[in-house]
Specification:
The protein is mainly α. The protein is 53% helix and 0% strand. The two termini are 39 Å apart. The relative contact order is 0.10.
């Protein structure tokens, strides 16, 4: 079913606000990679000084660091 009929149906059944908001998934498509402890470690690394020769942490540098530290 295409988007337009879905939005129209949600508008009629649930109202204007419901039609504008995305429907929340009950179950995410994949399991999260980081739990709370690993996420805290990521934040700790991101708030620290970046590696020498780098002005700031990039997503790739953070990912490499998490792998190097056996966090993931």
């Amino acid at each position: 079913m295409s988007t337009e009929p879905n939005v129209r149906r949600r508008f009629v059944l649930e109202g204007f606000e419901a039609a504008l908001e995305r429907k929340k998934r009950e179950h995410p498509p994949i399991a999260p990679i980081l739990d709370g402890e690993k996420e805290a470690r990521l934040i700790q690394i991101a708030c620290s000084q970046p590696p020498e020769g780098c002005a700031k942490w990039t997503l790739q540098l953070l990912a490499d660091e998490l792998v190097a530290l056996d966090v993931v």
